[in-house]
Design brief:
Residues 1-85 are annotated as: Disordered. Residues 69-85 have a biased composition (Polar residues). With 365 residues, this protein is mainly alpha-helical. Helices cover 76% and strands 0% of the residues.
Length: 365
């Protein structure tokens, strides 16, 4: 827009022919009061008007000069006047009128042209500054997208860890319930109380772990909401590409949990059949298997807390590979004291590892 205005204002003004002072015809000895003399005065006075039709002060000077020249011609005898002198005075009046036209018309246009050039330079510098700010805002928004994606990923990992821990705790609870249902009535009250304490410890452990992970999940969700609000202030576009393949990963984890659940159901059925069709030696063997399973659970928790990026299937395989083969019946002893001791060690080791991991080097503060 500014360039169009400048091009229009920079056009050279067309000087009307009526404003130019033409050289008069020679009088050849005529008197100064002739119409030729009046014509020269009128033309010079017309050339002194500006574009609006109002006279300017310099025009008075040009008309006065032309009159003084004509009066000097009139005072001289007519025999001394010549066409050369008349032409010279006419050309001088034309030069004065042209200089006056330049001052009135061309000089303001030059000033306006310079002002427009300065305005264009200012606008170009402002445009460059706005482009730089836009590039910086794009970089900030990209960093916010990456932070939100990382926080969502960590939140999904926390959810997976909570689900895995809940599944393992449910499995251990089922095994202990089956053991309690198949126990002989010949056990004394002391062992019954120890079993109740064991169940209570398992419930408390599950509650503590669940509360801790839920608290961390809530903190992650609050951070995600804060970052989303900050991102929406920078850009109004919808954040739709951050979730990635979250639904696919969740579906795979659910299928894996269902497979493990069906496997555990089959194992429980087999254990029930063994308990129903066996004697005290089979019960002692089952107790030793439960002890081995508790040891396995302890190892699983240790691996899970120290290396949270390993999937549930890999954790189960790694823990299963650590279990020794089935012991011989000669070395089997039925001892709930040892079971309780293993559970206590498991609980303390998990809490110690969790405290050590979250003490100063947690991924999510």
């Amino acid at each position: 827009m500014y360039r169009k205005e400048i091009s229009k204002s920079a056009e050279k003004p067309k000087i009307p022919i009526s404003r130019l002072t033409l050289p008069p015809k020679p009088t050849h000895g005529k008197e100064c009061g002739t119409p030729n003399f009046k014509y020269q005065i009128e033309r010079s006075s017309v050339s002194s008007l500006n574009s609006t039709g109002h006279p300017q002060s310099p025009s008075t000077t040009s008309s006065t000069l032309s009159r003084s020249i004509n009066k000097s011609q009139c005072n001289s005898p007519s025999r001394n006047s010549s066409p050369v002198l008349n032409n010279f005075s006419a050309y001088s009046r034309s030069a004065l009128s042209l200089s006056q036209l330049y001052r009135e018309d061309v000089s303001p246009l030059d000033n306006e042209f310079r002002d427009n050039k300065e305005a264009i330079k200012k606008l170009e510098s402002e445009n460059l500054r706005l482009k730089n700010e836009l590039a910086q805002n794009k970089e900030v928004m990209q960093e916010l997208r990456e932070k939100i994606a990382n926080l969502r990923k960590e939140s999904r990992e926390k959810d997976d860890r909570i689900a895995n821990i809940n599944a393992l705790l449910k499995e251990s609870e089922k095994n202990f319930k089956n053991l309690l249902e198949t126990q002989n009535s010949g056990f004394d009250k002391d062992k019954d109380e120890k079993i109740k304490d064991l169940e209570f410890n398992l419930k408390m452990q599950k509650k503590e772990l669940t509360e801790q992970f839920l608290k961390e999940k809530q903190e992650l969700e609050i951070k995600i909401l804060d970052l989303e609000m900050l991102y929406k202030e920078k850009n109004s576009n919808d954040i739709s590409l951050i979730t990635g393949n979250y639904l696919e990963d969740l579906t795979k984890q659910i299928k894996l949990i269902e497979e493990n659940y069906s496997k555990l159901q089959r194992e429980n059925k087999e254990l029930k059949q063994i308990l129903e069709n066996s004697s005290m030696q089979a019960i002692a063997k089952l107790t030793s298997q439960i002890e081995a399973e508790i040891i396995q659970l302890n190892q699983v928790f240790t691996i899970m807390i120290s290396q949270s990026e390993i999937s549930l299937a890999m954790i189960l395989l790694a823990a299963q590979s650590r279990i020794n083969p089935s012991p011989s019946p000669k070395t089997i002893t039925f001892s709930l004291e040892k079971t309780l001791q293993e559970l206590s060690i498991m609980r303390t080791s998990i809490s110690d590892l969790y405290a050590e991991k979250c003490g100063g080097s947690c991924k999510i503060q």
